[in-house]
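Support request, please re-run this one:
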Amino acid sequence: MDRFPTAGFELTKWQPLHKAGRGTPKGVAAGLLTIKNTSRRIHLPVDIGPEGNENLKAHAAFDIDRTLWIANYGSGKLYERLGMHLVYDHVSIELFITAIRQ
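Re-run finished. Output below.
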């Protein structure tokens, strides 16, 4: 944790989904997800809407294969005979973003 204390997501493109229903993603965000100084392009569904009079909130939930970001510890895909030391490769991530108008 000391060597890589943070991860980041840089939004590079937004594509609205027309006719999106209530409670469903309103668009697809494309960008760079950086973990352990490794950046990869991803696309994720995002629900976005107003919060109060001035603010905007966004929510995204998605899964990644952690080994694509060189997080290999205990990967059954990369190591054999791990037994109870196996760590699943797929990780669920949930982002909550609030944009505040100033």
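The two ends are 34 Å apart (CA to CA). Strands lie at 8-16, 27-35, 38-51, 55-65, 90-99.
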